[in-house]
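Appendix B. Raw example, untouched.
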Amino acid sequence: MPFDYIPPLLQPNGKKIVLLVMDGLGGLPLEAGGPTELEFASTPNMDRLAAEGTLGQTIPIRPGITPGSGPAHLALFGYDPLHHPVGRGVLSALGVGLEVRPGDVAARGNFCTLDANGNITDRRAGRIPSEESVPLVEKLAQIRIPGVEVEVRQVKEYRFVVVMRGEGLDASLVDTDPQKTGVPPLPVRPATNSPAAARTAELFNQWVAEARRVLAGHPKANGVTLRGFATDPELPRFNDAYGLKSACVAVYPMYKGVARLVGMDIIAFEGEHPEDEFAALAEHWDEYDFFFVHIKKTDSKGEDGDFEGKAHIIESVDAALPKLLALEPDVLMITGDHSTPAKMRSHSWHPVPFLMWAPETVRPDAQTRFGETACAQGGLGTFQAHDAMPLALAHAGRLEKFGA
């Protein structure tokens, strides 16, 4: 783990590191021999950086393992997800400013649409907009369960978060989203034989039953599913581990949550486009050593099966990239947290394209375009995502020699 060997090697300097994550970046061709979404997109700026830098591909968890967004991001921050498991509920809660203390149980919630038989017809309630979901969350926030405190807050669109607080709770619970339609939501079940987990499952089932009652009659959001039950994992602090003052620029709350979980500051800004995020970064450029910049919609388009839409989002990032490059970062990493091929409409286990650009220290390879095929042949090869941060620190001149 980097936290074991990096701290004694750290040497401070004024060099800046940027990690630009296009969520779900990796893709697949729609037909054999065709391009992926990244290869289909017109990306002249990224292609120039690819020619000047070096490429590779990362494995977020382990070969063949499909990652969730939380562990995949933690891997890019240097935390091996197998040694530092974190549930998505905590990330969602922190992302919207809810406190999650050790012993609390947080879960990410989705509104869903149920038919007259209680079966799910739409797992995301037609992706209802935030202005429609806010009053529904306000209704959920009024639910009271004896013996515990429950706090509910809207996240974005059809998503919300629930935090349960009380004595003797256990977050070892199984998700209620069956991941398909035509069947009812699953009950909350304990994942272990722990009596505390069984009690916690029963408390959440009581809450879900009340939620169904207060939502009855809504044409789209008349049910809920819960995922990612978790408590505070008490992770090592990112800034301490790497000797960096770090900040996050993200639109979607969950990614603010994963950044806040490891101790990054969150930069507030207006807007949802890549140029808005890069403008926010520029405003705070002198305040931090490390910036994590997150682009969400590449993943959303992949999950929607929208191949060209995903390519268009990648193009919008490329078009805005000169705003970031004008700041002259010393190290720029462009990658994804995982692959979300539009062909599959879901996260996948495929390696993730990775671009390392560091003009003073990088060893260019023979690749001239940023895409999966080029990355598979790039000079960095295929490596674990949690090794990206040591590489960035080295290219920034922030690591001393190991040993005599």
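End of appendix B.
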